[in-house]
Prior knowledge:
The chain is an alpha/beta fold. Helices cover about 40% and strands about 20% of the residues. It has 12 helices and 18 strands. The chain has a 5-stranded mixed sheet, with helices on both faces. Strands 13-12-14-16-18 form a 5-stranded mixed sheet, covered by helices on one side. The chain has a two-stranded antiparallel ribbon with strand order 1-2. It is globular. The two termini are about 30 Å apart.
Amino acid sequence: MKKLQKSGKLGRIDAELRTEDKKTIGTVTIPNNLDQPTAALLAATLESIERVGPYDARFKLIGVEDVREEKRKKIMERAKDIMQRWSASQRSEVIQMISKVGEVSDVGKIVSLAADVEGGSEAETSDTLFIVEGRADLNTLLKAGVKNVVATNGVNIPQYVVNLTHKKKEVTVLADGDRVGDMIVRELLRREAKIDYVSKAPQGREVEEMRPIEILDLINRRVDAKTFLAASYAVAKPVAPENLLNTMRTLMDRVKETFTAILLDENGEIIEEIPVSQLFDRLSELDNVAGVIFDGIISQRLLDLAQSKNVKIMVGERIGSVEKVPMETVVKTLDDLK
Length: 338
């Protein structure tokens, strides 16, 4: 495998681990540029591994993802986007010359989906879904040719909307550029709605005020939900102590691509340097850790532990599936320290 990595046939191998019932369970991701027979042989070889060091081990193939097929899908989606933008641009010019009633009837009608819930005609049938605040926002999206849309009718989210999100492959929230827009996103997440992307209108503007071409630009500017939440929490989150940040900058190259973790006290002094696999258990045992820098994935489980231990800053190789960032803990990636 080292030879394959040196030749560029294999990329960086990521391993995300967790402990359950005194057993270490995890997922190994191996990006590669191999032909199908060689990739299949590599997968079968990994499944034949029975020990890792002194411990019994078992590997099982979860799946093989063809990136080329994903690229073809992205090209198709981009082609659809270009066509939709073209149509929306033409509509923007026509909209100035026709009445509001005529505009709605030309591009789609609002339909009743459930008690006190309205949306577009494709809200239930499409694989993807857009969520907006109110009826006026629905009209605006319909003018842009977006029919797979539903309205929350304010901050009190109907349960129907929450349930509908879990039936979709992709859900995007288009929020107004005000405090209420933020509240709706957080309330959806609190109610455990499935949200993949969020896009906010410019500060002080509402979705209903935007032209069709601006709506499509708004959709193109969307970010994944965890990035949106991280940016939102960053506004209120305290700044990490400068002495910890300075120490971590000097340690960044020391931990990168080594699968090690370094625990720091509030003075920036090293408490301990350990393998990433031992990080959760060791952090659970210590009460004087102020900072953690490690070559691994920052998970929700690890952040919850950091919050309970009053850790001021946590820096990892990348951020995993995180829905709630503790207000007291600064979260960064190794690249953020540069």
